[in-house]
Amino acid sequence: MKALITGATSGIGQSIARNLSRRGWSLILTGRNEKVLKSLQLELETDTEIITAELSDKNEVFRVYDFCKNKSVDMLVNNAGYGVFGKFDETDLRDELDMINVNITALHILTKLFLRDFKKRNRGIILNVASSAGFMTGPLLSSYYASKNYVVRLSLAIAEELRRDHSKVSVTILCPGPVDTNFNKRAGVSFSVKPISADFAAEYAIEKALAGKLIAVPTLAVKASVFGSRFLPHKLLSAISYNIQKSKVNDDE
Questions:
Q1: By three-state DSSP, how is residue 84 classified?
Q2: Are 43 and 64 in contact (CB under 8 A)?
Q3: CATH code of the domain in which 7 resides
Q4: Do 131 and 175 form a contact (C-beta atoms < 8 A)?
Q5: 251's torsion region: left (phi>0), alpha (psi -120 to 50) or beta?
Q6: pLDDT in tens, the chain (253 residues)
Q7: Residues ≥6 apart with Cβ < 8 Å to 43
Q8: β-bridge partners, 129
Q9: Strand 26-31 vs strand 215-216: parallel, antiparallel, or unpaired?
Q10: What is the DSSP letter of 53?
Q11: Based on the structure, what is the number of domains in the chain?
Q12: Which domain holds residue 98?
C-alpha cells in the first residue's frame, strides 16, 4: 500500500507519515522544505520518496500528480494548509491568495485527479484534512474558515456521488479542533484552549479513513461544539467565534 501526503514536513502531515510507515505503508511525501523531507525519509523504515513542491503554484501541484500518477497510490492525504489571522480588510492579499491556493486549489486538483484514478481501479482512500472550522464562520480567520468550509462541502458532495455510484473509493474528512502544530505560530496567534497532539490527530484520522468513515472529529468537546453550532443563529455563532479568535492574540503584540 502506498500513500501520498502533502504538507509532510511538520504537524499532522508528518505524524501521518510516521504512523502509516509503522503500519507498513510506502510513502510519497511532499512539502516545501527539502531538508526536512530528506531527514524524514531517512527516519522512516518503509520505502519513501520525496518531491519538494510549492503548492500555492498550481503548476507545482500538477507536477506532484505527474510524479505520482504511475506509482499505484492507494491513499491521498491532502494535509497541506495554513491560516492568515486578522481583519479581512487588513490582511495581506498576496498571502491570503497563496493560502487559498494551498488550502483549496491544490486540494481540489489532487482530489479530482486521484479520484479519477481511484474510480478506475474501484479502490482508494482520500483523506482531506479540514478543521472544525469547516462547519463554522470565523471572523479574524475569515478566509481560513471559508477555505475549510470548502473542503468539508466538497468532500461531502464527492462522498455522496461515490455512494450513488456504489464505488469502493472512500472519502474521509478530518475535522479537529486545536492541534499542537505550527499553525498558530504561522498565523501569529496562540492557543486559547489546550490542543490535542498531532500524533493523536493522525492516529484518529488514519483509523477512521481505513474504516471508511466520512467525518472524523477527534474529542467529545469538539464533537459537541460542531453539533451545537448547527442550532445557533449565524450572527450569534459569528460573535462567539470572533471572541474565541480575539482571545488568541498574543498579549505582547
A1: coil
A2: no
A3: 3.40.50.720
A4: yes
A5: alpha
A6: 999 999 999 999 999 999 999 999 999 999 999 999 999 999 999 999 999 999 999 999 999 999 999 999 999 999 999 999 999 999 999 999 999 999 999 999 999 999 999 999 999 999 999 999 999 989 999 999 999 999 999 999 999 999 999 999 999 999 999 998 776 556 555 555 688 999 999 999 999 999 999 999 998 888 887 777 777 787 787 887 778 787 776 543 3
A7: 18
A8: 174
A9: unpaired
A10: -
A11: 1
A12: 2-246
Task: Tell me the one-letter amino acid at 136.
Answer: M
- The total number of residues shown for the chain amounts to 253
Q: Which residues are catalytic?
A: 144
Number of other residues whose CB lies within 10 A of the CB of residue 1: 15
- Cβ neighbours of 91 (radius 10 Å): 17
Q: Which amino acid is at 235?
A: K
212: region left, alpha or beta (phi > 0 left; psi from -120 to 50 alpha): left
Domain membership of residue 252 (yes or no) is no
Residue 74 lies in a domain: yes
Tell me, yes or no, whether 223 lies in a domain.
yes
Q: Is residue 51 helix, strand or coil? A: strand
CA distance 84 to 177: 17
Cell digits of residue 113: 485527479
Domain assignment of residue 157, yes or no: yes
